[in-house]
Design goal:
By secondary structure, the chain is mainly beta. The protein has helices at 10-19, 119-122, and strands at 70-79, 87-97, 102-117, 136-141, 146-155, 159-168, 182-193, 197-208, 217-227, 237-250, 259-272, 275-284, 293-302. The chain has one domain (10-302): Beta Barrel (Porin).
Amino acid sequence: MAPGRVTEGFFYTAFESLFGEASTSGWTPLSFYTLFSEGWNQPFVFSPASDSGALRQEWINAANGVFYRQWVLDYNYRDRTTGFRNRDLGTFTIFAPLSRRLELNISIPFVDYHPVENSKASSGGRSAPRLGSASYLYRTTVDDLTITPQVMLSESRNTSIMSLLAIRTPTGSLSAGDGGTTLGPQIQFWQGLPGRCVIRGGAGPTIPLTSTGLHTTFDTNLTLGRFLTLDDVRYFKELTVWIAANNSAAMDHSGAAADTMTILPGIRFRIAKQTWFLYGVEVPLVAPRSEDYGMYFRLVRRW
């Protein structure tokens, strides 16, 4: 296959990556051996389907292992978090490729509606606040902003491997358990399988840099999914189902809630040109569970 298109200068490459045609016809494989010499001055292009027809798409609670050019609008409902009432979260995420090797993932939480203890109502020698009483109030805050540089290490038609560094910044509210700074280096992969199936995953630590009660954890993800339809049907184009398993193991403490493990079955399909709807239900498996379940509703728009 012929080499990919090369441009002069970082800013021109970034501009073409963000706003250029990005046609799959310009895609070429990237190798580990050319990590420092190839791809950095090539504008982003969308990757082709695998040999079996599986598409490189983003799924809820799944490691990516893939570059995208899209924005994501997320609503997340958490049922009875930490024994309190429900919690509602809204997040806007943008995947902004700057070349075939480099991408920025910026996650902006814009609302966190959660219960907090009403200190005025719970003072005066009363016992612990009762759920459903005036001892709890709902408060709207924002969560921590996360910026994640990502580097594509290797990419072929059926396999891609990338590294990333998730940088969580202390922009959120302490009352919601936020306001901490962490670093999260990871290696992620995407692998196309026969029958339009995909296996993907990732692993790496999350390291707190501030003393806000956060702990060092080692996080792993493994996800298996299948494309039930492609573009050859009238309705539910690119209908995809998957199940994602996530585990977070504490490395610097033990005891109750030291480790967490969840599974999430999900579904995705196209609702308009370059636009998809995703839904998933996350269920915690390890006691003591911090919530009963969580639901994700997601809108993805590619440009």
